[in-house]
Fold these 2 entries.
Entry 1:
Amino acid sequence: MSETTIPAWQVPAPPERLERVSRLYTYAVVGATGAVGREVLAILAERGHPISHVRAIASERSAGSSMTYGDSEVPVASLTSDSFAGIDIAIFGASAEVAREYAPAAVRAGAIVIDNSSAFRMDPRVPLVIPEVNGKELDGTPSLIANPNCSTILLLVALDPLRRAFGLERIHVATYQAVSGAGLAAMEELREQTGAMLAGRDATPRVFKEPCAFNVFSHDSTVNEADGVNGEERKIIEESAKIWNERIPLTPTCIRVPVLRAHSQAVSVTLREPASVDEIREVLRAAPGLRVIDDRAANDFPTPRKATGGDQVLVGRIRHDPANPPDAFGRSRHLCLWLSGDQLRKGAALNAVQIAERVISRSSG
Amino acid sequence: MSETTIPAWQVPAPPERLERVSRLYTYAVVGATGAVGREVLAILAERGHPISHVRAIASERSAGSSMTYGDSEVPVASLTSDSFAGIDIAIFGASAEVAREYAPAAVRAGAIVIDNSSAFRMDPRVPLVIPEVNGKELDGTPSLIANPNCSTILLLVALDPLRRAFGLERIHVATYQAVSGAGLAAMEELREQTGAMLAGRDATPRVFKEPCAFNVFSHDSTVNEADGVNGEERKIIEESAKIWNERIPLTPTCIRVPVLRAHSQAVSVTLREPASVDEIREVLRAAPGLRVIDDRAANDFPTPRKATGGDQVLVGRIRHDPANPPDAFGRSRHLCLWLSGDQLRKGAALNAVQIAERVISRSSG
């Protein structure tokens, strides 16, 4: 049942929904058994959300199982258009198809929907939000909010402070993306295939077309035959322009690496105003959601291992572009850096939960 | 015994050495038990070199063992300054320290030395050669020839045809480097650590400071504390300038990935003259040492798996930079591409053997 023709998210959420005397909220997590859904449940529990009830929702085949939420188990219910009665906040960690079909029903039922899929990201009626970057878009308490693509989130959390401080003129980024972006089955495929290879056996790829064990490959999203840009690269370009409300020329290359759940990125930027490495480090150290790991002497920089399970985007290898060395004052407009961030947390579930927190804090503030 | 003060390689090799009536040559492979040395032996055998004798040489602790050469076993001799009597061509696949100590002795003994280490690469008296790019540097039959760094070789094999056809103005490259560049022990560390992780055990890094299983990390070479550029990045910059005899502004970021033996690179370039994707593909298809794998519809592009064991650098994802779309004629100066090449073969052993072949063919031509 497709209901995308009903623009329910054009009206703000009903104020009474977020102004309960108890300040306890009811949550639904759609796709609760998937890689992102599990992480949403874990993060809601660990951050101590003011929650009266969590409803875990998944497809028919998972119904009847249960998921861990804090110290308790919650039963998994099957997704229907009636799933959202009494729900204040629904976090969708499912496919774009599921979101297109069920998000309108959730909004009509009075929930504020935060959708992690690509379904509504480029819809001009729907805010696309990274709280650290454009959290103010939540001020109108929209009914439907889109969570950006994981690579977009990690890149913009790192670059937005530089954009604010020095201006940004040009971006090159090459990604080193974990398999978790393709879900739990992809993570299992990496483990299984790696074990098979170590045992000298072949393993047939299922989730990915290319073997993922001890291999890297161009991102598995569809490649546009006309211009050769793949879906993941297009998302970074288009979502960045929407979130920043400014189209900064951006050249992405998106690649999968045999890493379980944290993405990394090699980034080169041209600033509008020159800056020294110390000035850049200062700006990044003071920025929300970031941790600078940048010890040249110890060769200690961000890695996906260091980022896994954490809330922050790690940034390091902060240096002037050697092709454009700094001026006599140690400043240049040409900068390189390297970052890692947990794809399932800040790249997906955590960002969605932070959106929920900001919506709640606004309503109870 | 250091003999680097004797510039023996300034004199050309004695002509009689390469003008035997039999046209059969004697080879020495130094570091024969290492990752590169093994590959040199395999490649010499499979390419059917006109060889009368191969001497496998390694450090004291490997002496007495034997190595496979074609269908036979060759004993491993211990490296001394007397190791090179009667040798026509000595391929060094050992450390820079070993090369500095023993290459001069080999040259004095009358051998033509091809050294895979960094010891002599930037020495202005020593040619640094990728046969497809600057093979003409071998015309004077130098006594000592340096083999470039693996990342430099792969990048320049792919970019040199574009430089010749359209001119090159600017290069960005992010590498995805296999562990093989750090030797057999690193390959073993990746296998062991991966197995341990899959079994739920921890494994202490030995070769690399960072864990390499299911992880990526900034290249393990020393980082210059003043400018933040690491040794691998510096090699790409400096070696490219020497090989091309032209300093094209180049911005590298070098990263290790959990891949056994083939490197990949995400490359963005600015050409001097605009070109269409078809024109670029044609140039690359016609170029030596390259194979174009670029099927957008099938999402079929180079991977380290496809490159492993092969002689060619694989290149694909050939596209205009989306930040600089093409003109009305489908041409632009801004191009992206993606490549993979076997680090142990074209990145090291094969390039050295190709240098030997070119030296031999000149002398017998």
Entry 2:
Amino acid sequence: MQEEKKNCLSRRDALIGAGKLAAGAAIVTAGVNGLITPASASKPAAFPWGYKKIDPQLAGNIAYENWYKGFCCYAVVTGVLVPLQKSMGEPYASLPLMAFKWGHGGAVGWGTLCGSLTGAGIATGFIAGHEGEKILNDVILYYTETDLPIFKPAAPKAQIKNVNTSDSPLCHISVGKWMKKEGVKFFSGPRKERCARLSADVAVKTVMLLNDWVDGKYKASHGSNVRDHGITTQLNCMECHGDDVPEPII
Amino acid sequence: MQEEKKNCLSRRDALIGAGKLAAGAAIVTAGVNGLITPASASKPAAFPWGYKKIDPQLAGNIAYENWYKGFCCYAVVTGVLVPLQKSMGEPYASLPLMAFKWGHGGAVGWGTLCGSLTGAGIATGFIAGHEGEKILNDVILYYTETDLPIFKPAAPKAQIKNVNTSDSPLCHISVGKWMKKEGVKFFSGPRKERCARLSADVAVKTVMLLNDWVDGKYKASHGSNVRDHGITTQLNCMECHGDDVPEPII
């Protein structure tokens, strides 16, 4: 799929400019080389919408609190984009973030892509367009190989004992392994707390990578699963296939 | 998770009104009970953004053609939202639809939620907010249990021989089963054509359900996977677990 992406122009340099120059006022809409334009302008803001550095702790706090208002996808979208709504104004300010709640539970409960990662995709999509895909790719890898949650809320709504490495970006696998380890049901306070903290972790990681990116210091770490395996895939092949992993057709 | 949703108000009746009243001009921004407001207004348009009926064939045609420009997620987002950009104007008109390309290949190639379904989630999220989740739930079920693709492009870019039922909303499983049946590689013309046509099918189905919904005729057909299984999940348990499917903890 990589070769098909070549038509998309990289706009990182232009976006870095936009991010650096955007003022910190609550309703900033001044144009920066036409990249960020006010909602009252007759033409839409240029895409991608750009970025201004965010305190990762702030992103985590927002995501944690908002999990309890709209679950995982909404949590990460708001953790990343609410600070931009405040620091950059339009077009972020008019985006109805509750539109993205549907990502919860791996898409309305189907257990597929963890909604926190759907949220990271949506946020990086608006911020960086095609460039954001590398960042999302790295956030997904981080999610799969890290003992989560790490985030410690200032005022926890429940206590949890365990962390786990999911080896998978799928909600079902990630939360299922954790529920088994913790010994709790899906509809339990600790499970909700785990997902709220994990959403905060994804928001924190996304913002940390975006902060590096806007500073020109970001370097993609993960390659292409499709290129390596000849099919779109996770990296935990044996977890479903057992010893009968199909040979990749490349 | 259902009980957590009760705080979200249903706005279907209000949206049906908005959909029925929205004029068909290219740049319609007149307020309808404040639901659809122009981008030039000082406050954001009320959310959800509402809907105006779309010809399913048109949605399919747009999705098919746009798959070749931005893949599956972009295909379905544009199949549903480009007609609304034209018929309802703002706030749809200013939404940069390329922001959603990242959903391709189950999220930048990780093989999770088929990007066509991510696109359906994004579109129904803007259109119907919380109400849209029922529609997405039904679209996902349709995807998993239907022999796809069905869509026949007027001018096919490649020929394909097979259809398949995925039993799963995961890109990896869905496209993997089809590739095996068709005997083709991921980076092949027929595979691309299959995904383009399948994206058209998802756009068509989404629009058909939304058309019913805006007419007040839509009735959700699929229940809650989480309620039934005690965890977020697909319905093809044995495909990964074999005979060792864990007992649901409800």
